[in-house]
Amino acid sequence: MHVAPPAFEHHREPLGIGESAPRLSWRTLTDAANWRQAAHQVEITAADGTVLADTGRVASADSLLVPWPGRRLGSRERVGVRVRVWGEGEDEPSPWSGTSYAETGLLAPADWTARPVTPDSTPAGEPLPVALLRRDFALTGRVASARLYITAYGVYEAEINGERVGDHVLAPGWTSYPHRLRYQTFDVTPLLRTGENTLGALLGEGWYTGRLGFHGGRRNIYGEHRVLLAQLEIVYADGTVRTVVTDEHWRTAEGPVLRSEIYDGEAYDARRERPGWSAPGHDVSGWVPVRELPPSRAELVAPTGPPVRRTQTVAPVSVTTTPSGRTVLDFGQNLVGRLRIRVSGTAGHEVTLRHAEVLEDGEPSIRPLRIAAATDSYVLRGEGEETSGGVETYEPLFTFHGFRYAEIGNWPGPLDPADVEAVVLHTDMARTGWFECSDPLVNRLHENVVQGMRGNFLDVPTDCPQRDERMGWTGDIQVFAPTASFLHDCSGMLVGWLRDLSAEQLARPDGVPPLVVPDVLPTAFQGVGAQAVWADVAVLLPWTLYRRFGDLEVLRTQYPSMRAWGEATIRLTAEGDGLWRQDFQLGDWLDPQAPPDRPGEARTDGDLVANAYVVRSAEVLAETAELLYRAGHLNGRADAVRFRAHAAAVRERFADRFVTPDGRLASDTQTAYALALSFALLPTERQRRGAAERLAHIVRRASFRIATGFTGTPLICDALCAAGEPQLAYRMLLEKDCPSWLYPVTMGATTVWERWDSMLPDGTVNPGEMTSFNHYALGAVADWLHRTVAGLAAAEPGWRRLRIAPLPGGDLTWAKASHDTPYGRAEAGWRIEGSTADTLVVEVVVPPNTRAEVRLPDGRDPFEIGSGRHTFHCPYAAPAWPPTPIRHP
Asked: What's CA 489's distance to the chain center, in Å?
């Protein structure tokens, strides 16, 4: 038995953290069956090895987000932590874990002495070249340690003495700039030397001054000037400190990047490069001083999650010539990132790189990009100039694209596909969840969900990564969060995004969350009013993160935002005589029968959707308030009573308005019945039975094709299971005709599409203006695959107890899922055995310090097991397969 080094909060890399009392988590690794922690001991040491705190033996089974046992840390403080544990019935502790180190960033505004500087002299109404900024400084002694604290309004990369600092991409990312600005901390000790040194930075527009939004978008939404803020703190070996900050002494010039934009791509002229620009001795005679700006009012915050990084390179799988003569590379996977090329040629020769998700009639399909150019260009500097054998390497700097296909224009000479590779970018989250089954198409569907999430979790949870949008739509992440939190450790990233949501929401007088976060929608678009499903993210996303990661603090932090939306729904229902009535709701967005140019025309009444969500959010809010009351929130009990009564009142009015006595709903749709059954909106057994029968009927009548949009899709399979019809859920899952989950797979999809028919059966792209081939929302079905098909779910917040409840079905012969819980790897899977396929074998792995409730499909009572590996056999009778549809005469 041994203990893994402890983790701090949700940080993968705890350098420059913003918590002065970071909570600790650890995992015990043991093969002992039924192992449970009885006690732990935590030791905290200073950077010089001095013991700052030693808890001694603490009787506790807790190992997840354990409160910090020492004094609060100050800014720039580095500590080491190690842990050992005792198991139940054990007299001797485990060996000490390895030591984990954490270091705080700048925790107080007064810690910042740097001043904001800009290279921009006048506001620009057009794309700006990437600016180079630099400052020379001298060091007089040996450097013991050095930290660079840096951020920007815009996007930056830093360099010291000609070497790049860190590996972050598009730093500092996109936050609600008027409220919060994220900074990064880098250990730059190895880059400094005695004598002359240079600190430099490249500064691009990014999301700050660059064009954002559809219908042409807008520039300078947040401000007219890019800004750099940098503070380099150097500690000499004798303990003295030298600080180099952004101020009026910095100088700026333009370099080879003529423009670098989120939507339109980058233009790079290698002839304009300035070799050695970030190293001492560079000729700065043509450089001009920067301008100092007043300090921002935004709060400078440390990251809560990992940065965007290059996580993979992908080689092309083929090169083709299109009917029009274009050269196109296929990377075999719809991905998010950019190209890296190696090219040789004469000075001034320009190569263009244009990106597309799909081919249409053999040509790259550009129409779905709308007015995003998604094109990069590279002008060669020519052979022999600072190159290796005349080969020049280029990768764009401050842009990204969503693509599978790349059109290579004006390549000098024959193109060797080995000279082009795709560089994958996304927030560097740890993968935590996996699923497989006996059906290759379902496996491809699940992989499409994974790939779509990776591409769209790029600093914010975007809707799509390719067209002139790429925004943090709140409804998309609300419905997808249960799937996302199984597949990746997205807790730190989404906690940060929720803080932006809270800041934007609470700054609005009506307390309604914006449709996108950060909010860059034009005022006219915001006039559509509050939108259910989308605004409910304020309540339901924190709840999902609490349930999946066991972090009550996310509820405490987000509670003002959660409560504000709850109060808004009380006001909205009061204005509508007990129900929320509104002329327009996004509702079941992208119902498959909605016309291509009118995606909001759903068959399910928007008011029905809205009031169903009022009930759901009010009940979650009541439960949240009760939890916080037990944890010391003084107003929690009163809030719990208030919102529970609100939920009950709207549920009653919902039944009166939308449900008949025998369970028929005002909207006779898959989504309406899924909402009613999943959100417990049917007060009588007669209504529940009638709704279940009706849902089964309309699913059969649709020949098992999907008939739900963003709202109904995450719920439909669970609703069918609740209706006692799990085989109908399987039949819908395995349907291949459009619309269905597997239809895109049969059409070669490698990510989840925005529309069920983003590509039509004849290979043409949906004629609507809004068509993406990389949207994760409809991939929310993967949560059902994990929980029900494989049977692996959390029974308590943070996976302290597991629920193992596999439900075999369809013509699958096996399925399995695994998840890296905070306690270790959990697994659940099943397979059908026997000469007559009459035995079900269920295999389970329960991590140390947890328990699991097991429900086998043979009807026996649930039972509990402890940690370890378990195998169960039970009789199995295959269901009648396939279910029969209702045939129309």
From this structure: 9
For residue 889, cis peptide bond before it (omega within 30 degrees of 0): no
Three-class DSSP category at 619 = helix
Instruction: Report the interhelical angle of 685-701 vs 726-734 (nearest 10°).
Output: 30
- pTM > 0.85: yes
Distances (CA, A) of 470 to 166, 282, 557, 826: 25, 39, 27, 34
For the segment 54-71, what is each residue's pLDDT rounded down to a tens digit? 999 999 999 999 999 999
Residue 641 has a pLDDT of 97
> In the structure encoding, which two tokens stand for residue 242, read together?
């030298």
Residues 6+ apart with CB under 8 A from 836: none
Structure tokens at 107: 């925790």
**Residues, the chain, total?**
889
Q: Say if CB 506 and CB 561 are below 8 A apart.
A: yes
Q: What is the pLDDT of residues 349-388, one digit of tens each?
A: 999 999 999 999 999 999 999 999 999 999 999 965 444 4
Phi and psi at residue 322, to the nearest 5°: -75, 165
- At 524 the pLDDT is 67
Among 759, 785, 762, 786, CA closest to 774: 759
Query: For all residues of the chain together, what is the average pLDDT?
Result: 96
Identify which has the larger pLDDT, 847 or 526.
847
Of the chain, the end-to-end C-alpha distance in Å amounts to 67
pLDDT of 606 higher than 90: yes
Query: Is 754 among the residues known to form the active site?
Result: yes
Check pLDDT > 60 for residue 389: no
- Encoding tokens for residue 614? 């009022």
| Span 640-668, pLDDT tens digits | 999 999 999 999 999 999 999 999 999 99
Q: Is the pLDDT of residue 528 over 90?
A: no
List the catalytic residue out of 469, 725, 735, 827.
469
**Full DSSP string of 666-695:** SS-SHHHHHHHHHTT---SHHHHHHHHHHH
Q: What is 799-833 written as a DSSP string?
A: GSEEEE-----TT--EEEEEEEETTEEEEEEEEEE
pLDDT for the residue 385: 45
Q: 43, 735, 754, 827: which is the annotated catalytic residue?
A: 754
SS3 category, 220: coil
Of the candidates 573, 481, 443, the residue with the CA atom closest to the CA atom of residue 776:
481
Q: Catalytic residue at 769?
A: no
Question: Rounded to the nearest 5°, which phi and psi values hold at 52?
Answer: -90, -30
List Cβ neighbours of 584 (8 Å cut-off, separation of 6 or more). 528, 529, 600, 606
The tokens for 738 are 């459009």
**Residue 797 to residue 372: CA distance in whole angstroms:** 42
Tokens of 853: 């409730």
Write the CA distances from 424 to 165, 310, 336, 648, 731, integer angstroms: 20, 6, 6, 48, 35
Three-state DSSP class for residue 88: coil
Number of Cβ within a 10 Å radius of residue 346: 10
Q: Decide if 363 contacts 322 (C-beta within 8 A).
A: yes
Mean pLDDT of 122-131: 90
Give the C-alpha separation, 168 to 735, whole Å.
Answer: 42
